[in-house]
Amino acid sequence: MKQTKVAGSNIEAAADKETRVGQLIERLEELYPQAGCELEHRDPFQLLIAVVLSAQTTDKSVNQVTPELFQEYPDAASLAAADVNKVEDILRRIGMYRTKAARIIQLADRLEKDHQGRVPGRMEQLIKLPGIGRKSANVVLAEVFGEQRIAVDTHVFRLARRLGLADQPTPEKTELELMEVLPEKRWTFLHHALIHHGRQVCMARKPNCAGCGLQELCPKTGVQITD
């Protein structure tokens, strides 16, 4: 097998990058074959609320509070009419619970008033809802409506830069670059796989490069292996 040094180089030919990206995809499929959304939900409404709650909080923490939340408030109508103090009590174990309690009540109210309590299926509609930005909207469009989407959260943004997939300064521009680099049919899977890798291996601080299954394909540390 031929080895092409990629570490320490700031220039990568387009053909070489295409080959390396293909290898990265294959390796991510091997490492995280079951990668998917880890927010527990039973319907579009529950996912939408869970996505809002997950901001600056782990999915595991959100999954600990949503069963009680959705038992008490199973739909937009009931949550829109909720007492904010009672919602705060349910969310107390997650970060920014007071802000999030108010936000999801506002969100539910907007769903009731503008969408008959249903979760809309278009980007331009979703990003008008309280607490929903482009990243959150992409998660909903992918998980609920089956669209191929790349939701650029902090993990995807970090890994896109470290792995040489994108070098844009904002999540929005990074999303556009990733859409050009990655095959559309794998966008949703790759978004989840990168999140898994960012959480488990390529952390923001002290990434586990020695134990990384992508090491030889990483421009920061590795050697690209080609036939």
Report on the architecture of this protein.
With 227 residues, this protein is mainly alpha-helical. The protein has two domains: 2-35 and 150-226, Helix-hairpin-Helix base-excision DNA repair enzymes (C-terminal) (Endonuclease Iii, domain 2, Orthogonal Bundle); 44-143, Hypothetical protein, domain 2 (Endonuclease III, domain 1, Orthogonal Bundle), CATH 1.10.340.30. The protein is built from eleven helices and two strands. It has a two-stranded antiparallel ribbon. Helix 1 crosses helix 11 (187-200), helix 2 (44-53) runs antiparallel to helix 8 and helix 9 packs across helix 11. The radius of gyration is 20 Å and the shape is elongated. Residues 1-9 and 223-227 have low confidence and may be disordered.
The level-1 CATH class of the largest domain: Mainly Alpha
- What is the H-and-E element order? EHHHHHHHHHHHE
Distance from first to last alpha carbon: 5 Å
Q: What class would the helix/strand composition place it in?
A: mainly alpha
CATH architecture type of the largest domain: Orthogonal Bundle
Shape: elongated
Major beta sheet summary? 2 strands, antiparallel
Nearest-integer average pLDDT: 92
- The fraction of residues in strands falls at under 5%
Total helical elements: 11
Number of strands: 2
CATH 4th-level superfamily of the largest domain: Helix-hairpin-Helix base-excision DNA repair enzymes (C-terminal)
Helical coverage, percent range? 40-55%
CATH domain fold name of the largest domain: Endonuclease Iii, domain 2
Number of domains: 2
